[in-house]
Automatic annotation (TrEMBL):
GO terms for biological process: D-allose catabolic process; pentose-phosphate shunt, non-oxidative branch. This is Ribose-5-phosphate isomerase B. It comes from Clostridium bornimense. Keywords: Isomerase. Belongs to the LacAB/RpiB family. SUPFAM superfamilies: Ribose/Galactose isomerase RpiB/AlsB. D-ribulose 5-phosphate binds at residues 8-9, 66-70, 99, 109, 132, 136. Its EC number is 5.3.1.6.
Length: 149
């Protein structure tokens, strides 16, 4: 499994915790920045990771900002991206099972590092259930096509 990570300054420390955690499990990762706590713009990192995931260079993305809101909104503008902002483990597995989410967004000012790592593990280990959910995801793609034509 290959995971692309990105964050703004608000997510910098949590991203490092997640990277250490994933590396300890021998999961292949790439860090697309930001690389310090200097103030920056979350859409820049959302775009980098979302394009990598949409191009299928990575299986999943993990994006972190202060709330997780801005970076998930930005990532969801890239066609093919289904970024889910999760602050609990139920949402983390449900969004993989039902929405086939391909990016997990986290708010570093919302969840502590212990819960964040559980959310990451839950998200990465859950499987898309297919079945009735396929038609619903196809309808999301149709919305993208309608407005990107
Ligand atoms: C940065 O201060 C903050 O606005 C950002 O990390 C995020 O919370 C935006 O949604």
């Amino acid at each position: 499994m290959k995971v692309a990570l990105g964050c703004d300054h608000g997510g910098y420390h949590l991203k490092n915790d997640i990277i250490k955690h994933l590396e300890s499990k021998n999961i292949e990762i790439k860090d697309f920045g930001t690389y310090s706590t200097e103030s920056c713009d979350y859409p820049d990192y959302a775009l980098k990771v979302a394009e990598e995931v949409a191009s299928k260079n990575y299986d999943f993305g993990i994006l972190i900002c202060g709330t997780g809101i801005g970076i998930s909104i930005a990532a969801n503008k890239v066609p093919g991206i289904r970024a889910a902002l999760c602050s609990d483990t139920f949402s983390a597995h449900a969004t993989r099972e039902h929405n086939n989410a391909n990016i997990l967004a986290l708010g570093a000012r919302v969840v502590g590092p212990g819960l964040a790592l559980d959310i990451v593990d839950t998200f990465l280990n859950a499987k898309f259930e297919g079945d009735r959910h396929i038609n619903r995801i196809d309808k999301i793609s149709q919305i993208e096509k309608k407005y990107n034509a």
